[in-house]
Each structure stands twice: as structure tokens, then as C-alpha cells.
User: Fold this.
Amino acid sequence: MKDKMSIIGIGFKLAILTLFYSILIGLFSDYSKLDFKINFMPDKFLIILGTILIIVGIPFLIISIITINKAYKAGSLRIDGVYSICRHPLYSSFFDNFYNLKFILY
Assistant:
């Protein structure tokens, strides 16, 4: 077992799996009669909501990356700042940005 995890952790593996499942669901929804759209809310509302959440998520992602890079170089564990609000802010902001794109694109 390695003593020190790489700077990206499992992020790359997680991104590849998420991309694979997203493509799979996209293809499945195109070729099936199932509808994965959110029909109980107007499209304009979903586009505005997705845009707002992405605008909030991008700075959260940038702050998380800067914070974790500083902690990684120092060899310490961060429990203050953005990490006091959320246990995994990198993954949370990645999923926030990625899944809110669905509101905008569909």
C-alpha cells in the first residue's frame, strides 16, 4: 500500500464512471420510450435553476482545489474553511456542476 495518495485521489476514476453512466443513460433514454425529463416543472425554471447552481458550484470547486492543493503540499488534513461546511467539497461541487448541466441541456 502506498504511504501517500496522489493529489487527484479517486477523482479520475469517479469521473470516468460518471461519464460512462451518463452516456449509457443518454443512449437508453434516446432509444427507449422511457422519459427521464423533469416534466412537473417548466423548462425555463429548470434552465435558470441549473445556471444559478452551476454559477455557485464553480467558485466552490475552485476554492476546494486551491485549499486541497495547499494542504496536500503541507501534508496536512484540512478541517477548516470550505471543508468545515462539506466533507468532500471537490466531489460535491463536481456533481453539482455536472448534474445541473442536465437541467440546462434537457
Remarks:
- The chain has a mean pLDDT of 76.
- The chain is about 70% helix and 0% strand.
- The longest helix spans residues 43-74.
- The radius of gyration is 17 Å.
